Amino acid sequence: MKEFIVLSEEVKAGQEKGLPIVALESTIISHGMPYPQNVKTAREVEQIIRDNGAVPATIALIDGKIKIGLSDEELEMFGNSQGVAKASRRDLAYLLATKKLGATTVAATMICAELAGIEIFVTGGIGGVHRGAETTMDVSADLEELAQTNVAVICAGAKSILDIGLTLEYLETKGVPVVGYGTEKVPAFYTRESDFDVNFQLDTPEDVAAMLHAKWELGLKGGAVIANPIPEADAMDQAFITNIVEKALQEAEENNILGKNVTPFLLGKVKELTEGKSLDANIALVKNNAVVGAKIAVAFNQSK
Ligand code: PSU
Ligand code: MN
Fold first, then answer.
1. Which H or E element spans position 44?
2. Nearest-CA neighbor of 63 among 99, 95, 103, 94?
3. Helix 164-173 crosses helix 141-148 at what angle (to 10 degrees)?
4. So where does Mn(2+) get bound (predicted)?
């Protein structure tokens, strides 16, 4: 395993000092945002993590290695590269063996974080059960990973490109707690609320840390979804975004988009149809998640 894992200087030093570390994914950099906003946002998110007392570890596959923490040059190169492969669980071995650039999804980032001993991971949104999954069977590998890998994912809920109700059913079957951070409702990424209730509401980083501590002390395998709503000021209008998501879903069907291309296609369409408004919301919610995630990492570190 050591053969494949490379820690950045910052992460290595942080681990030696016993500092809290926060994992960050890289699909959001390569497939979620355009250059140069992607690199700028990634840098700002890392700085927010530092400002809140933790060490950021952006994870990506570069030159046959799992990089846990990227240097400034690596981040710039990665964010400005064309054709970076989207890497989920099934893709990891192939991309490492062929030394291709790989952007880790939530699932793959969880795997890499666990290998590096990192329990807390901040992102924008998780994958889930897609609408129409009863015929397409399109269920994100992120959900299986949450069922088996001991990493907590701080996110702004699930996008309405997904079937949020079915996603919650799947997580329930797999025993994955969905916690609302300061909310009773499952947030829907661009908006603060969906029609669905979270399993549990927790209001402080200490309370979340205590729940994670109890879960893993008991040997209950798997992660947790810590759903943190987008700040009020950055939230989008519900009717506006619903309309756009419907259009994006229709175009995906007309173009017969399948497999791993579905999520990037839908995200790209939403961005195009909102004329960039969705990008501003996306950046704001990731930064908000970074604040909360770093605080949870600090609290969890103290409970260890
Ligand atoms: N949802 C978002 N933004 C994203 C993703 C999902 O709102 O960037 C990315 C994440 O990396 C997630 C992946 O892990 O898409 C899920 O892809 P799929 O549905 O193919 O499993
Ligand atoms: Mn899928």
1. helix 37-51
2. 99
3. 30
4. 138
CB atoms within 10 A of CB 77: 14
Q: Is the pLDDT of residue 304 over 90?
A: no
ipTM of the complex: 0.98
Using DSSP bridges, classify how beta strands 65-68 and 55-62 pair: parallel, antiparallel or unpaired: antiparallel
What DSSP string describes 95-110?
A: HHHTT--EEE-HHHHH
CA-to-CA distance for 42 and 286, rounded, in angstroms? 9
Give CA–CA dist 143/34, Å, rounded.
26
HSE of 184, CA atoms in CB hemisphere, 13 A: 1
Tell me, using a 6 A CB cutoff, whether residue 260 lines ligand 1: yes
What pLDDT shows up at residue 152? 99
289: three-class secondary structure by DSSP? helix
What residues act catalytically?
A: 25, 159
Sequence length of the chain is 304
What topology is assigned to 2-303 in CATH? Indigoidine synthase fold (3.40.1790)
| Terminal Cα distance for the chain, rounded | 25
Closest to 293 measured CA to CA, from 8, 52, 110: 52
Closest Cα to atom 10 of ligand 1: 105
Q: 49: which strand partners?
A: none
Residue type, 157: G
Residues with CB under 5 Å of ion ligand 2 are 138
Among 266, 274, 250, 271, residue whose Cα is nearest residue 161 = 266
Average pLDDT over all residues of the chain:
97
86 annotated ligand binder: yes
> Global pTM?
0.97
Do residues 45 and 10 touch, judged by C-beta distance below 8 A? Answer: no
DSSP 66: E
Q: How far is the CA of 107 from the centre of ligand 1 (A)?
A: 9
Q: Which residues contact 37 (CB under 8 A, 6 or more apart)?
A: 279, 283
Q: Residue 249's closest CA among 158, 171, 132, 109?
A: 132
